[in-house]
Amino acid sequence: MEAGRRDAELATKLGREFRDPALLARALTHRSFSGVNNERLEFLGDALIGFFIADALYVQRPRAEEGDLSRWRSSLVRERSLATIARRLGLGDHLRLGEGELKSGGWRRDSVLADAVEAVVAAVYLDGGFEAATQTCRTLFAQDLADLPDAETLKDPKTRLQEWLQGRSRPLPVYEVLEESGPAHRRYFLVRASLTDEDRASDASGSSRRIAEQQAASALLESLQSSTT
Questions:
Q1: Alpha-carbon gap, residue 121 to 107, rounded angstroms
Q2: Helical segments of the chain, H only
Q3: Residue pair 161/223 in contact by the 8 Å Cβ criterion
């Protein structure tokens, strides 16, 4: 199917009729395909989506605290969430990718799909204005905004462990790197999270110290919660 027809089909899915179809074409063009691509549109779309989500959450959750609003926003605008939206649209079928990206399955990659969503929103904005972009975002994020998880579950494990301990007037845990190995491009970290007021600790590994610490904190919190039930 020719590119122009594919673009028109996507515009129909979005409920838009572009006055300047070249904007949508650029939004769907990866840098591997052409020097005229969607990178600048991604920049603009990222800001537009961030504003829309912040506004929608502010209205939808009038009693929510800033921290909860921030966690919801982060969960909705992160790469994985945007890639999920792209898959709902079948956006990968509309992308213009270079030969290398095609061979490596770029149309399935979260980063490529998420960037394309941002670029498409920017194209809608430039073509139809702020209200048009807002309406497009309402459509794209309707399901996610309707199914928001409990904000508490979005806290990272280290924060949840810290709050659990502080709520019981207990000292904060200590994190210690037990092992660090592997080449620079494939590091391995083994970390221990331990308590200072109790002989209890949990070890975990990850490709970065941060990831390993989060995993260790999660395991330690689970151990603590299990022992108190």
A1: 18
A2: 3-14, 21-27, 39-60, 66-77, 79-89, 99-103, 110-128, 130-146, 157-166, 209-227
A3: no
28-56, pLDDT tens digit by residue? 999 999 999 999 999 999 999 999 999 99
Active site residues: 46, 118
Q: Which amino acid is at 118?
A: E
Query: What is the dihedral angle through the alpha carbons of 74, 211, 195, 164, rounded to the nearest 10 degrees?
Result: 20
pTM of this structure:
0.73
| Known binding-site positions for Mg(2+) | 42, 115, 118
Residue 77 token pair: 């605008």
Q: Which fold has domain 3-148?
A: Ribonuclease iii, N-terminal Endonuclease Domain; Chain A (1.10.1520)
173 backbone φψ class: left, alpha, beta (φ>0; ψ -120 to 50): beta
